[in-house]
Amino acid sequence: MTLVFPSAMAVSAEADANNNQQRPPETLGYVEWVVMKDTNLRLKARLDTGAKTSSLHAVNIEGFERDGEEWVSFQIPLGDHEDQPTEGELDHDDVILEFERPVERTVLIKRKGAPSQKRYVVMMDFCIAGTTHTTQFSLTDRGKFSYPALLGRRFMRDDNILIDSADSFMAEKECEYITLEELAKRHAENVVEETDSDS
């Protein structure tokens, strides 16, 4: 089962800057739950002061052009990180989310003993500790890592986040998420609505 989620409208940088100036400092643990806003997909994220840019687990990453602009398509297989609560009707391996996003920029990652790797960077909305944020995520296969999402210094700086490296899951507020079955059902309903509007 492949679920397709097209791009959502990004919040303007000016609005983000104004919100960030008003946001008080918040202390979080080195691992927290995040929920991707356009899908209600729940993932464990490691908050890493050693990384500047956040990264998100993705596979089958392909760049393409749309209306003269650079876009990227990618998939998130839920079987790689089974964090989405399930009622037992679906297996995580049966669900693959597909995304399309405009490319914010690309970065070249130098790897010791291996060829350099080009990574696409996209803007994504997510919720952590009950608050919605927008930040840049580089797309890379994190299937062999413990955490499918990594939040870097850019997010911490822009959103005034402090990290307690001795503790995890410190967030006092939770973000709304749905079960694996609800996620699949919601997508099926969205597909019907999009088909009807195109006809």
From TrEMBL:
Coiled coil: none annotated. SUPFAM superfamilies: Acid proteases. It comes from the Bacteria. InterPro entries: Asp_endopeptidase, Peptidase_aspartic_dom_sf. Pfam families: Zn_protease. Residues 28-174 form the Retropepsin-like aspartic endopeptidase domain. This is Protein containing DUF785. It comes from Marinobacter adhaerens (strain DSM 23420 / HP15).
